[in-house]
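Exercise 4. Each item below gives a protein and its sequence. For each, produce the structure-token representation.

Item: Alpha 1,4-glycosyltransferase domain-containing protein (Turnera subulata).
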Amino acid sequence: MATRKISPHKVLYDQLQARGRTTILSAITFAALLIVVYTNSLLYNVPLQSPSAVITKEVPEVLRVHSTERIVMSAIKDVQLTSSKRREEEEVSHEVFHKETQISLIPPYNVAEQERIKWFRRLLPEFKILESDKLTKEFHSRVLEFFNKECEVRFFMTWISPAESFGSREFLALDSLFKVHPRGCLTILSRTMDSAKGYRILKPLLDRNFKVSAVTPDLSFLLKNTPAESWFEELKGGKKDPGEIPLPQNLSNLIRLAVLHKYGGVYLDTDFIVLKSFAGLRNSIGAQSTDTVSKKWSRLNNAVLVFDMNHPLLWKFMEEFASTFNGSKWGHNGPYLVSRVAEKLEGRPGYNFTVLPPMAFYPVNWNRIGGFFKRPEDQEGSRWVRAKLLQLSGETYGVHLWNKQSSRFSIEEGSVMSRLIASHCVICEYKYNS
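Answer:
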């Protein structure tokens, strides 16, 4: 009979739980012993001249035992409640710490470059994503162990925010991914999700035997011997201007390129709902928009990337990132970067890649995504919803939800989004507004 591999996250979670149980059990046992000793002392060591001594001697043995048991069980309950309360307080404290840290890591706005570099150097220890430690050293071996021949498609996501921020919208991306790819494998590159908290978030999927794992990335390893290696080493040394845009956002743009170059597969942002299998895609990138006259793509986006290991276009992307990095201009190191490079190299020998039309990944633009969340108000609205769903069932692999724009919208019953979720979920616990 085949031996089932245990997820590294499961091992980590079990170890943390075991330590917690051992600590609580030791405290309970110690408290119980003290109470037994103290109770016996009260029962048997009261001075003989005390009136209570006569009463104690006349209490039947069974009542003394039951009395002691009640005291011990009461103490155990108190210890358990105190421990549970302490765990809750620690988790709240942990969340507050992460939120405060996130706020403190927002770059100062409208200051000179040298002043921002000084700020960055001072706070370098707080940028945990740049750290090298025991977890990062295990990164490569954990990834290789996780992926196997049974993986239909290799997926990657990044999550650099606190685990507490990984909410129902993000979980929806995972839910829809495994609905369409039950034999797919997903690695989430994240230090914060590589934790007991992260394990609890992923547990509903793990309980259904889906292959999902959060792994702390080793950026030095991923970028070694790539065009971005020296750029990263200078950044770690506090010699680079991180820019006004939060650094994790720009690092995510680089990490997705490096991990695909190293292992190959599919990169997905966490604000996607997957509709169709990616198994037939290779070396593809999606257009966000096209020219109305020429019908040629006018802008690409890096929210979805599908590439073989060591693909030369990924190398060129990293080269462009390192040589033209601008941390203060939104999109410069992401969507605009892949657009710049692809425009230069499209059709050139050795750079074989396909640009898919907007309907593949970006069937609705960011400024119109709100319409997907609204319920139809009349028959005309209902017809539009049905027509849109029919259109998406064709050549659309997934819908980018543009979370920065759509997070303010609730998913209303009967909307395009509610209908998509209903037919593309496994856990299916998303709540709608009627």
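Check: The chain has a mean pLDDT of 82.
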